[in-house]
Structures are given as structure tokens and as C-alpha cells.
Amino acid sequence: MESSIITLNSIGNQQDLMIDPPSSELALQGTLTIPGDKSISHRALMLGAIAQGETTIEGLLLGEDPRSTAACFRGMGAEISPLNNQSITVKGVGLGNLKEPLDVLDAGNSGTTMRLMLGLLASHPGRFFCVTGDNSLRSRPMSRVVNPLQQMGAQIWGRKNNSLAPLAIQGQNLTPIHYHSPIASAQVKSCILLAGLMTEGKTTVTEPALSRDHSERMLRAFGATLDIDPSTHSVTITGGTLLTGQKVVVPGDISSAAFWLVAGAIVPRSELVIENVGVNPTRTGILEALAMMEADITLENQRVVTGEPVADIRVKSSSLKACTIEGELIPRLIDEVPILAVAAVFARGTTIIKDAAELRVKESDRLAVMASQLNRMGAKITELPDGLEIVGGTPLTGDELDSYTDHRIAMSLAIAALMAKGQTTIHRAEAAAVSYPEFVTTLQQLTVQ
Ligand code: S3P
Q1: Beta carbon of 215 within 6 Å of any ligand 1 atom
Q2: Among 249, 281, 307, which residue terminates a domain?
Q3: Which of 106, 122, 265, 402 is most buried as measured by Cβ atoms within 10 A of its Cβ?
Q4: What is the pLDDT of residues 92-111, one digit of tens each?
């Protein structure tokens, strides 16, 4: 009889995920699809909401984060069809026409929702907005967007010198700036570009390294005027251009594919094909890191779908070797560091991850949490101020772990548990639904005995 090594136990709103790998080796085989890209899903909903006319979105991520974005923009007058299948329509209000919401806008767990939306709210003159989020989001730094918006003339108030949500915003006519961002962050860049869209004149953002460019691609597709200077990592937007509703096809999220890429690489005798994965070069750092680690990964059927590169990705298990992940590669794999830490635990030698201090201000402190949770299982990880030092090759033993309510931590630990001896329990595993509601079902299907 078939049985699963994966069980889920619900306690109120919380879930414990139990993973009990067989003593004989597990092999992962099959073809899978993954949910839509989270970054592109947010942007499609937001640009659809402020465009003229109708936007249709195929393949939208039906996770909790895009639901937060949809709820916020519905509260400001956009008509967004229910997020209950992957074809969504958005009837936009038109540029500058977001309505003053009658209630607080709740971004939930989503930093992208809050930071991108702030650029739009701050630049809607005469309207007042309040934004908040969950426990995690209310502790994440908003000064990185509040400061440049204030330089443009925005009026924003919040705790800790206007740096923490809840935030109150009194919309203004803003003045264009050239902002030199101290960090490579697509959320910061996109926030300022969206404020610039509503501001007369040219607003420029320069970043120290290139971050994901989904906003630039989609803003152009919707009709905005953008100048991009790749040599200085600068983007200039000319304010005032009206956006027109578009058809957007959202590719699968490479950040979700990453769990299966690492699982397929570390679980012996595995071969997986992950179909329809977005392979935008600003997101494929994970493929370069795994190539350095000598993973057996090939891209097939490469194509471009509504302005974004897409491919099917085949991974076969192989013996991994340690590597150093640093510098300009970091922004291109920023969300994949937790699962790369798992890969490094199973690699020969010592992997160094550095220049990644940003991980400390994600949904959790991902450096501290990955080090503490994997070390509980027997890994040898030392936290660095801006990264991790991971001595590979020590066997893992199942233990009782916690997601710290961070979706990527929950899923990364689940993949590590596949290769541990004995049962692992991951508390608060429901966090996975933020970006990958079907994660546990897919894990069950792949590991059925
Ligand atoms: C995102 C940008 C990244 C990433 C986040 C999504 C986006 O954050 O970690 O999950 O959609 O713009 P930063 O821009 O803050 O690095």
C-alpha cells in the first residue's frame, strides 16, 4: 500500500509538518509545475490597478502575498476578480485615480506590497492612507523607502522616526530626484519608480548592483517611458504617462523552483523536470551558484512569454562541492540563500556566503534562523555578520524545528529533512502558503512510497 512520509497536523491556524524519510534511500522523480512568480504577480496586480482599462493575468500566484496586494488595491477602487483561479481580470482606476481607502490597508506578510504601494500612495495628492502588516512586516525597515520618498516631498509618519509600520501617508505632488540607493533592492527601486510615474519630470534610481528588473519590463509593457543605463545600474522614469491595461502571463517562480532544484540535486538517484520557470537573468543567480557547486542542471525549451524569459529546468542528483557566493551574485539569488544553505550542508568542503546582510531583514533573520535550525539537526554552520560559513558533509538527524513564520525557511527545512535520519517536525509550516500554497501536496506526491 502507498504511504506518505509527509504528514500535516493542524492546530488552530498553525500547522506542524512531519517528515519521516525511509531508512532506504528516497529518489525524487517526475515532472512538476510550480506556482506563479510572486514578484511578477504583485506588479501585474498593481499596474493593472492603476492602468486605464482591463488587464488580464494568467498564471497569477494564488498565495497570501498577492492576496494582500489585491485586497489593498480593491480598497482603493480597482476591480479585481476573485483570486480563485489562475486567470484574473483587473479593471484599473487610471493613473492618479486611486481612491482614498475607508480603512487601513493591510499588506499582511508582504514587504513588496507595502514598499511598492508606498510609492503610489505618497504621490496621490489630497488623499490620506494608513498601511500596516503582520508582526513580521511591522518590524521590517521602511526607512529605505520612506527616506527617498521624503526627499521627493512625501509626508509619511510612523513609529521609530517614521521607519516602522503602521504608517500614515498624506499624498502630495512630489518633486523628481536622482536617488543613489545604498542597497541593491528591487523593492526600493520599484517604489521610487512608481512615485516617479506620478511625478512631473524625470526620476532616476541608481543602485550599487542590478536587482530584479520585473518592474522595468512591466512598466514599459504598460506604456511608461523608461530609460535604462545598464552600465551604471540606473533607471529613469518620465512622470505622467498613462498606463494601458495589458495581458500578462506570469511564469513559474524560480524562487519556488529552487526547493526542487536543490532537492533533486541532493537526494540520490533523483531526476526532476520543473516546467515553465521564469529565468529572467536578474533572478538566475541560483542556477549559477548550483553550477559552481557542480549540480547537474539543464535548461530546456527556452522562450520569452510576455516579456519575461522562461524555460523548463531538468535537475539530476550529483555530488555537490562547496563554493563561495558573494558580491553582485547576491541580489540575483537573494531569496534562495536559505535553500542554498541546505545544498551547502550536503556539499564537500566549506561554503562561504557573504555580502548577504540583507537576509537579516527579510520575513525573518534568515541567516540566524537557518544557522540555528540546521545546526539543531547536526549541521556545522557559523553565522557571519553578513553571511554563513557552512562546513558540508556532516549527516543530519531529524529534530523539532520552527519556521519562524517565514515561508522560505519552512520549505528549506522541509527539503533538508528529506535527507535527515529520523523524523523532523517543522512548527508553523503554514507559512509556506505565502508564496507556495501547494508545496506540501507536491512534496507528498514526490515522496509517496
Ligand atoms: C522583491 C525583491 C526582493 C525580494 C523579495 C521580492 C520584489 O527584496 O527579497 O522577496 O518583488 O521586488 P529586496 O528588493 O528588498 O531585496
Answers
A1: no
A2: 249
A3: 122
A4: 999 999 999 999 999 999 99
Question: What tens digit of pLDDT does each residue of 43-98 get?
Answer: 999 999 999 999 999 999 999 999 999 999 999 999 999 999 878 999 999 999 99
Calculate ∠ Cα 187-188-194, nearest 5°.
Answer: 85
Query: Which residue is closest in CA terms to ligand 1's atom 9?
Result: 335
The domain in which residue 110 lies consists of 38-249
Q: Are 84 and 113 members of one domain?
A: yes
270 and 148 housed in the same domain: no
Looking at ligand 1, which atom is closest to the CA of residue 186?
Answer: 14
363 lines ligand 1 (CB under 6 A): no
Among 38, 39, 188, the mutation site with the greatest number of ligand 1 atoms within 8 A of its Cβ is 39
Using the CB atoms, write b or e for 247-272: b if 16+ within 10 Å: ebbbbbbbbbbbbbbbbbbbbeebeb
- Out of 234, 249, 264, a domain closes at 249
Does one domain contain both 296 and 419? yes
Residues 327, 194 within the same domain: no
Q: For ligand 1, is residue 185 a contact (CB within 6 Å)?
A: yes
In terms of domains, do 13 and 70 share one?
Answer: no
Q: How far is the CA of 74 from the centre of ligand 1 (A)?
A: 23
Judge if 87 and 225 occupy the same domain.
Answer: yes
The domain spanning residue 48 has which CATH number? 3.65.10.10
Angstrom distance (rounded) from CA 343 to CA 419: 11
- With a pLDDT cut of 70, the percent of the chain lying above it is 99
Out of 335, 399, 402, 406, the active site residue is 335
The verdict on whether omega for the bond into residue 395 sits within 30 degrees of 0, i.e. cis, is no
